[in-house]
Amino acid sequence: MGVLLSALGLDPVQLLIYTAVFYTLVTPFLILLILRIGNDKKIMNHNVNSKWSNFLGIGGFVVSFVITILYLSTFFY
């Protein structure tokens, strides 16, 4: 795949960097989606998240959101 990308004139390493940036921007929203699904009794029946899972999930969301905001702020300085 790397040879094909290189033959097309695309730098595989640069594409990996773009992929990492995309994942940085999407991660907080995916965490919220997972938390919402994990707490929905219609979907999860009696297997909804525990308070501890919600605490860790919200903590992960806050950390990833702050990292995303800090990353985006680097474009303006």
Please describe the structure with a list of short key phrases separated by commas or semicolons.
4 helices, mainly alpha
How does this structure look, described?
The chain is mainly α and 77 residues long. It has one domain (2-76). 78% of the residues lie in helices and 0% in strands. It is built from four helices and no strands. It has helices at residues 2-7, 12-38, 41-44, 51-73. Helix 2 (12-38) runs antiparallel to helix 4 (51-73). The model has no long low-confidence stretch (mean pLDDT 92).
How can the largest sheet be summarized? none
Q: Whole-Å distance between the termini?
A: 36 Å
Provide the helix percentage.
Answer: over 70%
Could you report the average pLDDT, rounded to the nearest whole number? 92
Number of discrete domains: 1
Order of helices and strands: HHHH
Q: Brief overview, please?
A:
78% of the residues lie in helices and 0% in strands. It contains four helices and no strands.
Task: Provide the fold topology.
Elements lengths: L1 H6 L4 H27 L2 H4 L6 H23 L4
Helix pairs in contact: 2-4
